[in-house]
Amino acid sequence: MKKSTFPKNPVLLVDDEETWLRSFSLALKSAGIDNILCCNDSREVAAILETTDVEVIAADLSMPNVSGEDLIQLVSASHPEIPILVITGMSQVETAVQCLKLGAFDFFVKTYDKSSLVSGIRHAIQIRELKRENTSLRSRFLDDKLEHPEAFDQIITDSMNMRSIFKYIEAIADSSKPVLITGESGVGKELVSGAIHKVSGKIGEFVPVNVAGLDDNIFADTLFGHKKGAFTGADKARSGLVVNAAGGTLFLDEIGDLAHASQLKLLRLVQEREYMPIGSDLTRKTDARIIAATNIAPETLNEGQKFRSDLYYRLKAHHVHIPPLRERKEDIPMLVDYFLRNACKDETRRKPEIPANLIGLLAAYDFPGNIRELQFLILDALSCTDGLKLNIERIQQHIGSTSTAQQTGNSEVLGKVAFGSTLPTLKEVCDELVKETMRRTDNNQATSASILGVSRQALNKRLNKIKRKEEE
Predict the structure, then answer these.
(1) Would you place residue 404 in the very low, low, confident or very high pLDDT band (cuts 50, 70, 90)?
(2) What is the DSSP letter of 238?
(3) What domains sit in the chain, N to C, each tagged with a CATH number?
(4) Buried b (16+ CB within 10 A) or exposed e, 120-157
(5) What is the pTM of this model?
(6) Is the dihedral of CA 298, 299, 305, 310 positive or negative?
(7) Which one of 115, 214, 226, 292 is CB 3.0 to 4.6 Å from 230, fit for a cystine?
(8) Residue 285 φ/ψ, nearest 5 degrees
(9) 184, 370 contact by CB (below 8 A)
């Protein structure tokens, strides 16, 4: 499999000393920055920038023909978005400060220790990623469009909140930083993580791992693997799932239950992009994108001593919170139809008719198990269906008599509609029905329209009329 490179666009190194270019390239590659372009003639930089998208430029200050100072002015004028790091000698600090005034991102003194320069380049890459994400977010929210709608095909939704999440995912998909996905059990965190992987265009695999309940040894062996003979029973080497995710995405589900010792190992993987297989003394690098998920609320996860705060904040470089089904009830009709269609297709049977009162029945329920619970209810009801209409008795039993009575209008519980001595007009009855439906669905117009059997536009028109009448 072809290995992915980091960053997406190359880092351009400019110096007339070939020895320095080679040594600095090796230092960058050992730090996981392996998309590098070297140039030993500063006069060629302008031509390179015309044909190549460059992420960062690191240039020596003292070069023949075009000096580092001249290079800053050239790049700043034509490509102001590219950060330039200047490498100076010990006696050139004052000139380097002048370079900062001209637009250089940072400057570093040329020494044998290249760690500070490597850190500076990594920081410049992160700043560029952040700027691209901000620009992308503004563009997407203003245009109200998705560039990769096919990546979200498996997420069935009609919710504007979910659409906003999709736009955010497209904006951060190219980032190398981790993503923390939060949300209650059953909301579809793994589906969302898979969508992030698809939009990113990464050539490697999507590797999901549920780490809940794993002790430290099993966690380390599962992710990092082991050498042959590392422990009793290790009769052969194991590569680990981090290797499987090379060039792709490593999805760690339920990280809120991770042991402290495992959290420390994960911190190293997230922060330094490195790990050590069990029984090995050699550090290995990874280019896998890390996505973590938990059903624990973020504010709770970061409280107390259960979860390391340094790991929490590094995982939360990007944060996606998926709302529960009770906050997006407009998705219920689509989900019901989707689950029914798929189940009937698998069983090669005719899709039964959906009872008129089913959507209202479901809309009044809070769904603590979210979409997973809704799927169970529909499949269970289908298994009890013999006729042409979906049998919803099991759903009514599951949801409870209160919700059933509210939505079905069972006369034994609610009684029939009572009228006073003066009968209301048909218009007044309709207005009260609309207002009651909106109350029961927490003012969700999509769900209310589905219950009333009208279009969303028709419901909105009637609501506006009611509002004007109340304001008179």
Answers:
(1) very low
(2) B
(3) 11-132 (3.40.50.2300), 152-323 (3.40.50.300), 325-416 (1.10.8.60), 420-472 (1.10.10)
(4) bbbebbeebbeebbeebeeebeeeeebeeeebbeebbb
(5) 0.72
(6) positive
(7) 226
(8) -100, 155
(9) yes
